[in-house]
Amino acid sequence: MLLEIKNLHVEVEDKKILNGLTLTVEKGQVAAIMGPNGSGKSTLAYVLAGKDNYKVTEGDALLDGESILDMAPDVRATKGVFLAFQYPVEVPGVATMTFLRTALNAQRKTRGEAEFSTPDFMKLVRDTAGHLGVSQEMLRRAVNVGFSGGEKKRNEILQMAILQPRLAVLDETDSGLDIDALKIVAEGVNRLRSPERSMIVITHYQRLLEFIVPDVVHVMAKGKVVKSGGKELALELEAKGYAQYADEAA
Amino acid sequence: MNAEVRAIKTPAEQGLADSFAGARGRLPGKGAVAALREDAFKRFDASGLPHRRVEQWKYTDLRALMRESYPLAALPDAAAKLRAKNAGNVLTGVDCRRLVFVDGAFAPELSDLVPEAGLAIGSMADALAKGDPLVAAHVGKTIATDDAALALNTALMGDGAAIRIAAGVTLKRPVHLVFASGSDKPSSAFIRSLIVVEKGAKATVIESHDSGVAQVNTALELAVGDEAQADYFKITQTRALHVSSLLASIGSRAVFNSFAFTSDAHIVRNQSFIRFAGEDSKGAIRGVNLLRGKEHVDNTLLIEHAAGGCDSREQFKSVLDGQSHNVFQGKIVVQPQAQKTNAKMMTRALLLSDEAEADNKPELEIFADDVICGHGATAGALDPGLKFYLMSRGIHEKEAEALLIQAFIDETIEEIAHEGIRDALKFAALRWLGSRS
Amino acid sequence: MPAAQETVEQVRRIDVDQYKYGFVTDIESEKAPIGLSEDTVRFISAKKNEPKWMLEWRLEAYRRWLTMREPTWARVDYPKIDYQNAYYFSAPKKNALASLDEVDPEILLTYEKLGIPLREQEILAGVVRPEGERRIAVDAVFDSVSVATTFKEELKRAGVIFMPMSEALQEHPELVKKYLGSVVPVTDNFFATLNSAVFSDGSFVYVPPGVRCPMELSTYFRINEANTGQFERTLIIADKGAYVSYLEGCTAPMRDENQLHAAVVELVTHDDAEIKYSTVQNWYPGDADGKGGIFNFVTKRGDCRGARSKISWTQVETGSAITWKYPSCILRGDNSRGEFYSIAISNGRQQVDSGTKMIHLGKNTTSRIISKGISAGKSNNTYRGLVTAHRKATNARNFTNCDSLLIGNQCGAHTVPYIEAKNSSAVFEHEASTSKISEDMLFYCRQRGMSAEEATALVVNGFVKDVLQQLPMEFAVEAQKLISISLEGSVG
Fold first, then answer.
1. Mutate to test the interface with C, among B367, B370, B387, B408 (most CBs of C within 10 A)
2. What is the pLDDT of residue C48?
3. Which domains does chain A have, with CATH numbers?
4. Sheet strands (E) in chain A
5. Contacts of B360 in chain C (CB under 8 A)
6. pLDDT for residue C470
7. CB of B1 within 8 Å of any CB in chain C?
């Protein structure tokens, strides 16, 4: 078991968003989390990554048995938590290449690993970027600035591929993508599936799960998991909608 | 600002000192009001007329512009009132409550005093003389500033409007304060008005100035209560040497919109001191200036965000022809406690003549970190490409220019919510354009 | 760009004291008697064996200065300067030497510590020299005198004169006389006039017609002596069609008392000439409580005297307790161009009031201003600028962009532009913004594993990129490091 979330209660600006969420993700498992808007899916992603202003009032989240909730965001990242943002942030003036290297070397140094030399790093990025259709020109541009929706999402997956996290949380990675872009992104994600890496794929729609086939599907409503099942659960949701869970969570 | 001891007075300063010495005994108000006057005059006397070395008056050197001081206007006689009858006609067609002031003095017989629930109207001179508690609570207290022109106004303030809109009341019609000159001799007027818009009340107030050869120093204190809304317009079309101060204090969750329209002027200085004192309020401070000949128009703003969460927009457009001189100074101050302030200022000058001068000084002074503030300023001529395009479609040069200038101004005038006032100002701008060629 | 990473390391290595140039060099020096009088002026002039006209020029300035008042319009607040309680001239005793070998080894060591190469052979024989790296000629000014100037011979072959001002007065008095004070007149302002009276050394550059200076020229200013002001005077002339890129760097020891630095820099470009002037100003800023630090009151002005000439100022201001500095361009020649690129960072109790003046006099003149201000700690950072087009400056163009970034809620960021259009064909565009460093950006960076400091350094380096790009490569890297060091301690 890589991640264990126990009875997690979270408030944002005095509003309760998560209400006793319990969830485990096994090592190497790809878990899909589905649910209607406002069910707390993105909040879960941010809480795991350590964003400010998300107040945990009860419960815990353990990575390899160690609570991560009091850790700074960079400490969690170094321990292998990666969040692919729903809305990747633009960082003007900072070339994507520079950003990637600063991040990778910061993590490696903290872990006591040797930093990448420039040529090695360039090669690593070039190889990975090629698979994702990320051009050299894009790598020279400032992080996410002027990127299209698809480029931003591909850039997130590129970062994931470079940083090699143990737990990747993909927050609505399919939003705003057309079918071709979705396929590229999904292929990138599938390439990173491994027995050593767990993933939480957050999505509103079943469509993404046709391309990234999950091991398990959890349904969230009103801040907690209300149902779990196999990948067929996603299809069922697609057919019946989320309305049926409105009462269960209450 | 000027710490030097000033031994020499200009003739105008001497004249003002003489006016004050001669009038101090009969100016309205005793006790606290008289003390306020004495203190204000002392401050004015120490600094003299503001001049170019005083940063906020850098581009409008009042000491140089004001050669002499005119005597205080006498109370208007019947002839004066007759001359003033047509003043304020820029708003003909807009259903307003007209309150007329001739040479600064309230003229009830020319005014619309039909009672309205929650609206109290009075003359400032009466209120000062009677020691009215509303006046005592507000006059001289709305905004703290050491401005010398305002100090002079406080020292010599004669009459003006004293208006109160009771809590929760929405005025049915805009109030139009018509300031007209009736005297056929050069004279000076020191007008002081107070408008209190109480909690949750809503009011639209227009102040218009049209007068002949005169020196006018006018000030308005405006208190906008919590959750109240005040829409304020100032229309200045005067041959006077005109100095005006707006002092506005805005409460919480309130709305304040102001619009200053100036055309066919001589020398105008509009200074606005606006303070967002309560949280989560919104303000839009706008203006349009149309200048030609040797006209000089100065709009100077000091916008202070003293409470958090307020939004302010400032937008000024000026069109300059002839040898005119337009000045815009706009300072946005964000105090340390005013987090989440959003303030944006834009000022544009359109130069139609090589001899005109546009001076712009937008300023930001920011002490809180969680803010979004910005300003923009442009100065330039009409776009020759656009002009050519219009002319290539058969439009005359002057007409093409007029269309482009109109488009330039309209962008700001269009922001006015009140349809009647919006149309009236559009028409005023058109009239100015029509008389250009 | 590895610099962001390097920066961070740099920051990490520094624990308590963030100012790494704060050491004092222990050498014997010779000083003028304390205080300022005609005698001080005569002393300085005599020390430098100046021609009579130079002394008269200085004395005229001194007399004028006595009648002037210290300006108070800038947003800086500092204790009254006691002009009689400072030394106006201080020189290392061993000085004016034929070769570097005769320079006091302590001084050589100082420059070594500062990372400034003074030995040409070392530069030439540099163990590893990346391909394409440009060579830089250095004039090193230590307190009141120039201690070494490198590559003089090679420059001479190209016709370029690069020497300390004191030497130029001996060797090229006609050039100095012709240009000195022609851009910043003796009576210009309080600090410039003071400088005119007591200036000690500085660099003189003359690039003859049609010559493109074969290397970057640079001067490193170092204040070492306590209680001593530095008043350098720099004069750069690019004759018709000439080009030169000049760099200036400054450091000073950490001392509890404030020290005055009042420099004057004059630039002249003739027809088709170009001067690119870059500064990395890293004077001692004082400690966290605002104790000590340099008072930096500098007058820098360029005169685009010739048609189609160009002057470009780039500055990275990270040091000094007080900065009062407005590198300006007088766009006199038709079609001339002025540029001002600035990064001003304030932290601790620093106060910066800096900006530029673009004075459009000639036809079709253009100017561009990009200013990036970063305020942290309890500092105040003001951009103050003037853009003006005179009646005859038809088709004048200016574009100005001033952005301010606030880090923490105890600092202030201020923008005071004056924009004066006096003819209708002028087109001026000005935009400014102030905001705090974006929490979202910081979180994004930290989610990828960067510490709060690394994230801040990265975001700030991105914010100032447009200006960094204007710096010569070597300086850009240096500047990037400095930026992060300056922000040390600003991340809560």
1. B367
2. 86
3. 3-249 (3.40.50.300)
4. 3-12, 15-25, 30-34, 54-63, 66-67, 81-84, 91-95, 142-143, 167-171, 198-203, 216-221, 224-229
5. 417-421, 428, 430
6. 86
7. no
